[in-house]
Amino acid sequence: MAYFSFVNGIAAGTAAIIFSMQPILVALLAPRWTGETVNWTQWLGSAIAMSGTFVVITARLAIGPPQLVGFGFATLALAGITLATLWEKRFGLQHHPVTVNLVGYSAGLLGLLPFLGWSDIMVVSWTPSFCWAFAYLVTGNSVIAVGLLLAMIRAGQVSRVSTLLFLVPPLAAFIAWVTLGEPMPLMAWLGLIIAGAGAYLPSRGYKSPF
Q1: Is the pTM above the cut of 0.90?
Q2: Would you say residue 59 lies in a domain?
Q3: For residue 10, which of 18, 69, 86, 156 sits 20 to 30 Å off, Cα-Cα?
């Protein structure tokens, strides 16, 4: 859904702001969904991290008025990652992580097929750059990143784990600065520090029960 939002005119900065709402939604829903208690330290850390994330996004990425269709896909993406995180915490503990990944991506493929046909983007050009990007998405993004996310969700409170997602836009900006030479304004550096401090605050002194 996130990729479809990009195809349908959502700017990267606008999408990043929408997706950054996930930790807030998880913190709001976790007490009723999983029985967790979200204390004031977690709320304060989330507020600080969100502020730092917004600073990085506004300093570095273009933000424009979203297209209606693109905004709809971005909202579906936000709902998907939020509900999937909560679902994994409540119902996924008894399943092997490899099984969870296999079932999740198989269901995702079936769900995306109608949209692929509707968007008329089924043709793939197997260029070297596409193959490298595809390999990274399979290994780094799908297997390693999602596997680590599942492990963290199972080992700790889902609301605390979700706070780490505030670091995605700042760290993406930093990695792009290191690897691609993209500009990193001073305000973006400040936002990175603020987001890191906010993400650290909820985990300070917390010990996993597992």
Answers
A1: no
A2: yes
A3: 86
